[in-house]
Amino acid sequence: MAKYASAEGNRLPSPGIGNLLKALAELDAEVICVAPGLKRLNRAIANRLRVYVNPVRLDDIISSADLVVSYAGSGMVCCALLAGVPLLLVPQNVEQYMFSCRVDALGAGVVMGTNRSEADFRISLQQLLDEERFRVAAKAFASRHSGFHPDQAVSYAVRVIETVI
Fold first, then answer.
1. What is the per-residue pLDDT for 8?
2. What is the pLDDT of residue 6?
3. Which of 61, 78, 88, 162 falls between 20 and 30 A from 107, CA-CA?
4. Model confidence over 9-30: pLDDT tens digits?
């Protein structure tokens, strides 16, 4: 049984997210969905997903996941890539779309465009699970950046700002 981590922010942020949840619920897998602030979920879908409406630490979940689904927030994408986990990205704005395209260019994920039907999500999820090339690319990214921790980026930015000041 595969495990998935799905983190969708403070609301259902993207067009077609209901279709995504339906597609995830159809998988023969353990699906962990973190959707802070989610107020309602179709009972049939809720019975198939493990849903958390409060924020949770995803580090351990992501490291054992086969796939991460995200709206392409930089923190979630970086966490998944550093864990060597491929992504299905469902961006909701231009910046997230551009960031998603970089993950796609790495070969470590698939970006959902404007076609977000349940069938489109099902096809993309299956592609990510069936084609080893996505996991290989994500693992290669993780290997290239194995010594990196996100806190280093903050420290580096602070040093640059202090130098300029």
1. 43
2. 53
3. 61
4. 434 446 788 899 899 999 988 8
The residues, any chain, with a CB within 8 Å of residue 32's CB and separated by 6 or more, are 3, 4, 5, 6, 49, 50, 52, 61, 65
Domains of the chain: 2-164 (3.40.50.2000)
The candidate with the shortest Cα–Cα distance to 66, out of 87, 45, 82, is 87
- pLDDT tens digits along 91-118: 989 999 999 999 999 999 999 998 999 9
What the block records as the tokens of 32 is 């962990």
pTM of structure: 0.82
Mean pLDDT of the 129-139 span = 97
Q: DSSP code of 85?
A: -
Whether residue 48 contacts residue 28, with contact meaning beta carbons closer than 8 Å, is answered with: no
Q: Which amino acid is at 123?
A: I
Helical spans, DSSP H, in 37-93: 43-48, 59-63, 74-82
Cα 123 to Cα 48, 74, 118: the distances in Å are: 19, 24, 9
Give the model's pLDDT for residue 37: 67
Q: Structure tokens of 50?
A: 């493990």
